[in-house]
Amino acid sequence: MELKQQLMNSAKSLSILVMDSDEKNSQVLVKFLEQVFAKVDYSNNAKEALTLFKTHKHDILMCDLNLPGMEGLSLVKEVHKVAFLTPTVLISEKNDHVIYKWAVDAGVDYVIHKPFKTEEIIASLAPLSQIKRFHNLVEFQARRIKNVLDVQPHLYCVYEKDQVVFANQAFYHSLNITKLAEINTLEDGFEKRFIDDESYFLATSSDWYKEAYTRNSEKLKIRLKDERTNEIKTYRIYISLGMNEDEYVVALIDNTEREISDENLNNLAVTDVLTGLLNSVNFRLNVETSISSFKEQVLQFRHQEVERAKKSNPEKEKSPNNKISLTMPSYSLIFFDIDNLRNIKMTQGYRIRDALIKEVVDVINKKLDENMLFTRWSGEEFMVACPDFNLDESETFAENLRVSIESYSFSNGSDITCSFGVTQLLDQDTFDTFLDCAEKLLISAKRSGHNRVIGNRSADEVSAKEMKIRNEIIEKFEVLFENNEEISVHSYFHGLGLQRSSSIIEMNKTGVSVNASVNLLVAMNDTNFAYIVHDTFEKVIKARVTNMFVPQEKAVLGDFLYVDSSPLDRSVVKLECDEPVSTLIAFRKKRYEAEILEISINELTILLKENITFRKGDDLKLKFILPQSAEEVFEFVTKAKVISLIESEGEIRLYIRLFLDKWGDNAIGQYIHFRQFQLSDEVTSKVQFLKGAK
Questions:
Q1: Is the pLDDT of residue 354 over 80?
Q2: Cα(412)–Cα(249) distance, integer angstroms
């Protein structure tokens, strides 16, 4: 009973195929087996039985020695071709050693004899069912391991005697093959696919894995070409010994993204995030190196010229009036600035500003020679170092850049121009004096009306033009002053526009004093600039706040210049939030946390807390809470669409358009009014500070 119970326990999940030519015996046998096995199939025909086995892959086979259509032992051999480890019981009418020998040769596990007894059947099937159940468990675990390996992006294989005996799907895919046999028949061999690179391991023979195994401690890497995508990938090599001394388990761990990430980090250390240009630190290092080389070339040229003069006329050197003709090495610097870009940022936001900067960089890059160095120095300021360019050449080149930008059709429809300062390196220059000269020339270009190139030789001319423009503006102020006409003075405080109709109180040859409300003074103190509008002036005037007197509600304005695009042309009120407003973004059945930085009637500027793959035009859902007053808040749940995603200065900002109903529009409007009152209160709270500071 114990053996029968053992059989029932182990066979309850197994299937068995019975083949017996004696139908009467078979009925009894099948009836008994159906009590024990999960599935029992019967056939008295060998060919039919073989078809059944190929279809169902039975766990155990019971086969009569004498079958119609095929000898029983031949059938056993055919079954083992399909499933080698299938346990087999042979049923025989004879009991002699020849039968046993045939059975062993055919791979039979057990022989029983007719007429057989139930105890004999149990005795044969009990151990076989246990073995098969164990085999099934092993096979299940093996399939599970294979499935796990097949979903990995890494390459796994097993070598045995220089042949690959196992490989996962990623291994197949990388070689663009589908079968294991194809790996070992590759015309140029797997090891020949390694890319020759001095920084990576290179196979020299088909048993490369043995050498790699001995060097495991070196953390070897290889480079392979993916035959499906033509992508070059990097893998780390990990190798261990298998079940015997001839077996090696190889793991090639995909390290491509890590290396790209490391490369990107290295790039970030030397490049500007927004434009990909050299950052200011590395530009300075490169130019300083060039300056040192320049000075060495100067000394070398001078020495060569002196030696040449000596050889041509030794007495010439002694002449006090002698001047040696010397062709100096040339090195120039172009310093340029995008005109009125800050105004564009104020009126259209960071997204448009950053996009315009990238477009300007693209225009410039197409014009540069290979040996030129290009950097984003700061904000909207850029520099181009021009080795072997003298002043005339660099001025001509800068003029070419200016025209290219002026004539370019920018994506937002803006007319963009740049102002340029150009200088040539002198042998006594340091980087700082070199830069200082170029910067002064750039300032002269901007003060003279923008969109022009100023070089060393024309600085005085520029100053004269600049003074002429300023004098003309002062003269117009004098007329307004004499006629007691009011002007409109504007400034901004965190996006809150402040304006006052002001009178000119005093004036001199360099500036004017105007009356200004305390609120306006606070805004001026925050930005250090004001904007003046009057029909007398052909454009909006930008003025620097040179001084202010809070108790007298007076500001002194100077350094006047015309601006081409006015920050006053704002179609949408865009305010900075008091504090970043938490929001949840629902996108593709996932939720992401973010913060609202700026808000208008139908647009938001959002700071992402993680790198999310958004694209222009993506549809989102937002959930956020805005205060409607000091006591009341309202929760918004609304649809939105991505306008743009900009990564700048280490931050990822998302610009979206809201799709609100009429009630939502009103609620956003209430928040904007509420925030305006907050900013007004904040402005007022700074009055005492200004009184103490001035």
A1: yes
A2: 58
Mean pLDDT of the chain: 81
For 527, residues 6+ apart whose C-beta sits below 8 A from its C-beta are 491, 492, 493
- Which fold, 155-259? Beta-Lactamase (3.30.450)
Which residues of the chain does CATH 2.40.10.10 include? 484-563
- Contact yes or no for 601/651 (Cβ under 8 A): no
Cα(545)–Cα(692) distance, integer angstroms: 18
- Tokens 């035959």 locate to 227
318 pLDDT higher than 70 = no
Q: Please name every residue paired with 237 in a beta bridge, in sequence order, or none if there are none.
A: 252
CATH number at 2-146: 3.40.50.2300
Given this model, what pLDDT does residue 326 score? 44
3-state helix, strand, coil in the chain (%, to 5): 40, 30, 30
pLDDT (average), residues 568-590: 76
> What are the structure tokens assigned to 477, written together?
């102020």
* C-alpha pair distances (Å), 356 with each of 381, 446, 466, 650: 13, 19, 27, 18
- Three-class SS string for 647-669? EECCEEEEEEEEECCHHHHHHHH
Q: Give how far Cα 412 sits from Cα of 312, 356, 408, 625, 640, Å.
A: 64, 8, 12, 32, 21
Q: Give the tokens for residue 264.
A: 């990107």
Give every CB contact of residue 216 below 8 A, 6+ residues apart in sequence: 237, 238, 239
- Written as six digits, the tokens of 378 are 């700061």
Residues of the chain with CATH 3.40.50.2300: 2-146
Q: How confident is the model at residue 321 (pLDDT cuts 50, 70, 90)?
A: very low
pLDDT (average), residues 63-90: 79
641, 606 in Cβ contact below 8 A? no
Pairing of strands 575-587, 590-599: antiparallel
Name the segment(s) of the chain with CATH classification 2.40.10.220.
575-682
Architecture of domain 484-563: Beta Barrel (2.40)
CATH topology of domain 280-456: Alpha-Beta Plaits (3.30.70)
The structure's pTM equals 0.36
pLDDT at 393 over 60: yes
DSSP 8-state assignment for residue 116? P
Structure tokens at 118: 């139930």
d(CA 347, CA 540): 14
Report domain 575-682's class: mainly beta
Span(s) in the chain for CATH 3.30.70.270: 280-456
Domain with CATH 3.30.450.260 in the chain: 155-259
Asked if residue 324 has pLDDT above 50, the reply is no
Residue type (1 letter), 72 = G
Closest CA to 89 of 152, 141, 37, 51: 37
pLDDT value, residue 401: 95
